[in-house]
Amino acid sequence: MIVSTTPTLQGHEITEYRGIVCGEVVIGAHLGKDILASFTNLVGGRSNAYESTLRETRDSAMDEMIEEARKLGANAIVGAKFDYTVIGQNGSMMMVAVSGTAVTAD
User: 20-33: per-residue pLDDT in tens?
Assistant: First the structure.
């Protein structure tokens, strides 16, 4: 399945718009990752623990959106957009949402 952030697909003609599709995943904070991230904040650098979790969460949201598009009979998604939101008490959880328009393209 082609997924694009653009409204068109270069080299393809959109023949049918199937509808808006979304994928949302909420993850909770993990004590071990919080400790590692706190240490990283003290010494500087990137938090591999959080980056890995965020990447997995983003991929899961994408998979959910793609599955929804397949159910609509689409073979591509255009206009894909990601949103990241901190939710829960004390910002203890993060939601990753992705949405786009499911289409059929030649």
Answer: 999 999 988 654 44
